Amino acid sequence: MTAMSAHAQGKAEGSTPTITRITWLASDHAPQMKGSDVSGVTGRVTAYLEKQWPGVRHEIVFANAKRSWQMIENGEDVCRANMVRTPDREKFAYFINTQLTPPPGLIVRRDTLRRLPRNAAGEVQLSRLLADHTLRGALIDGRSYGPALDEMLAARPVDSTVSLFSPKDFGARVLQMLSLGRADYSVEMDMALIMAGNPPDLVSVPIQGAGDLVMAGIACPRTAWGLAAIRGIDKAYGRPEGAANLREGLMRWLTPETKAHYAARFDAFYRERAKPSRIDP
What we know:
The chain is an alpha/beta fold. It is built from twelve helices and ten strands. The longest helix has 14 residues, at 224-237. The two termini are 21 Å apart.
């Protein structure tokens, strides 16, 4: 990972800027949806902030996960919603927590299920799968799938049959590849399947050792501009109505089974989200 640019460091040392516009980088684009749902989580965030933070203009620009992170890492005046929070990323970005999301699952065609290496609980043994040259994986380049899965994927054999892609959407094209037989599996969340219209030929399977909920949030660059932006965003969300808006936004993308399974954890998270966050410069 590259060091923060001199430009970004200079901005971080300057006086607190006034935020008049935020450019939001997004890849959660679902053209088959309607209204604000076309821009998924990001569209809902900007619609809420336009009401709660008057005087700031919000613009959505579509960029894939890899490009988005490069821009934040370089200290550009942009933010991104729905970004997995990791210690490495916190070196280059300010975060506020907005979503405690269920872990991604392995997405496969139903006719491929019998070929997966699974344990007695039905969970996929990912290390064995990644070493299987008869099955082809398709993943999103530059995306974090959470610490546990990131570690498993990074340890895959150098000759694994996993290919990386940088689609502009949230992953719908990769799911289409699975349906068309151009790849055999991917790693995704409930949200991606729902945004893709719940393809009947695809199914999500839990992954062994990756059952923890994943913390995601809004990220802005670790600069003076980014600090001012993230504090303004947190002020809008660090109240009961902000937490309620975030909860409603997440629940629409989860299956009933997932909601019920994690109900207590969700309750605790949104109680905390209803308060202002601690954001250290």
